[in-house]
Design brief:
The chain has a 3-stranded antiparallel β-sheet with strand order 1-2-3. Helix content is 39%, strand content 25%. It is built from 3 helices and 3 strands, in the order αβββαα. The protein is an alpha+beta fold. The longest helix has 11 residues. The protein starts with 6 loop residues before the first helix and ends with a helix.
Length: 71
């Protein structure tokens, strides 16, 4: 995983697969997908840490390759 992703990029990618911004509290964006009934929190930081990104991807159910295609 050589490329780093920002919170803005991840939010944009999640919107493309059906997530919408529910609300935001500080620098954390709360996203929800009604059809799958899943929620995920994305920190709106310049660079997401590797573990944070992996947890988001695991919860959403996509791989790092799929994320790269969506961005």
């Amino acid at each position: 995983m050589s490329k780093t992703f920002s919170g803005k990029e991840v939010t944009k990618a999640l919107r493309r697969i059906g997530y919408y911004v529910d609300h935001q509290r500080g620098s954390h964006i709360f996203m929800h997908n009604i059809s799958e009934n899943k929620s995920v929190i994305v920190p709106n930081h310049k660079e997401l840490k590797k573990g944070t990104l992996n947890n988001i991807l695991k919860k959403v159910g996509i791989s790092i390759e799929q994320l790269k295609e969506l961005i």
